[in-house]
Amino acid sequence: MRRILVVEDERHLAEGLRFNLEAEGYGVAVVERGEAALERLVTEPQSVDLVILDVMLPGLDGFTVASELRRVGIYVPILMLTARNRPEDVLRGFEMGADDYLPKPFELSILLARVNGLLRRRDWLHRPPAAASPAASAASPAPATDAFAFAGKSIDFDQLELRAGTRRVPLTLMEASLLRYLVQHEGKPVSRKTILENVWNLHEDTDTRAIDNFIVRLRRYIEEDSARPRHLLTVRGVGYRFVAEPVAESKAQ
Predict the structure, then answer these.
(1) pLDDT, tens digit, for every residue of 132-170?
(2) How far apart are CA 228 and CA 26, in angstroms?
(3) DSSP strand E in 116-191: where?
(4) By CB distance 3.0 to 4.6 Å, which of 123, 150, 182, 196 could disulfide with 244?
């Protein structure tokens, strides 16, 4: 059974979420304060598969909770709930380590779709290599690996970690999902609209600055000089392109 921690101080909303999530087959725990969520997750990090986290909480707010979880190396998926749908609030949530967001008020069907999407992406990133017989292997392509190496670096999608020499950078689920999608389309321009729909499950009219913000952060992880990227290239008017082994200095910004 998948276990979800709801961090919400509006009791009627918290109990409504508990009722509907349990009806979908999830195990649900509810806490009202950010401090209680942190204590539970830090002491029992494997006890929760996903966190539904309200931004406006008594005591520690949702931004602080998400940031602290990432700081101590806990990368459980976080769906952030916010009564404010301003782009700067969404960007701040992603900066603090949230994997998705949903503005209040929301439709239950949309919340369930976001929860299912986050859990599917987590399974996708953590799935073990598929076992296959020699005959099956000969008849079909090998399954996608959970790691990708390029230019002296490697991305371990199973461990949510980027490695460059002795340096190890933990990735959030959202960062790993975006990197994996770009790697899968290596050499091809990928539009912001495509990223919104296929990586984040968001509508195309969602503000795209969050994507640019993620790219800036990923460039700090993988580029020798983030101001002159050679792997995560900007395609003007379109989006981005990943190049594993650049053959010459790129003029992309």
Answers:
(1) 334 433 443 434 447 899 988 999 887 778 998 888 888
(2) 46
(3) 147-150, 153-156, 161-164, 167-170, 190-191
(4) 150
Burial class (CB in 10 A: 0-12, 13-18, 19+), 116: middle
- Residue 75, classified by CB atoms within 10 Å of its CB into exposed (0-12), middle (13-18) or buried (19+), is buried
Q: What pTM was computed for the model?
A: 0.65
Spell out a b/e string for 92-114, using b for 16 or more CB atoms within 10 Å of the CB, else e.
Answer: bbbbbbbbbbbeeeeeeeebeeb
Structural domains of the chain, ranges and CATH numbers in brackets: 3-124 (3.40.50.2300), 144-242 (1.10.10.10)
H or E segment at 36?
helix 34-43
Pairing of strands 239-242, 232-235: antiparallel
Q: State the Cα–Cα distance between residues 211 and 196, nearest whole angstrom.
A: 8
